[in-house]
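RECORD TYPE: inverse folding
INPUT: structure tokens
STRUCTURE:
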């Protein structure tokens, strides 16, 4: 996952969930990986609390960080 327009410094990419899945040749599987809003939060020292920014977030899916063939952008509201 990556924050596309964060107002605070963030890592370039973050691992926010994973599921180990074995798929045989020609087989397909559906995998659900929950991503609650709390995982998108950062600590706001001025407010003394965690904050979730309303911004677009890039989601990537693949078998390693070097191979992420699937991606989507979602708007956090």
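DESIGNED SEQUENCE:
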């Amino acid at each position: 996952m990556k924050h596309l327009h964060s107002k605070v410094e963030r890592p370039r990419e973050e691992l926010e969930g994973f599921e180990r899945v074995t798929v045989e040749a020609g087989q397909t599987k559906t995998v659900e990986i929950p991503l609650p809003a709390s995982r998108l939060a950062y600590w706001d020292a001025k407010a003394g609390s965690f904050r979730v920014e309303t911004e677009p977030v890039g989601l990537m899916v693949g078998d390693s960080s070097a191979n992420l063939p699937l991606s989507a952008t979602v708007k956090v509201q």
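NOTES: The longest strand covers residues 56-61.
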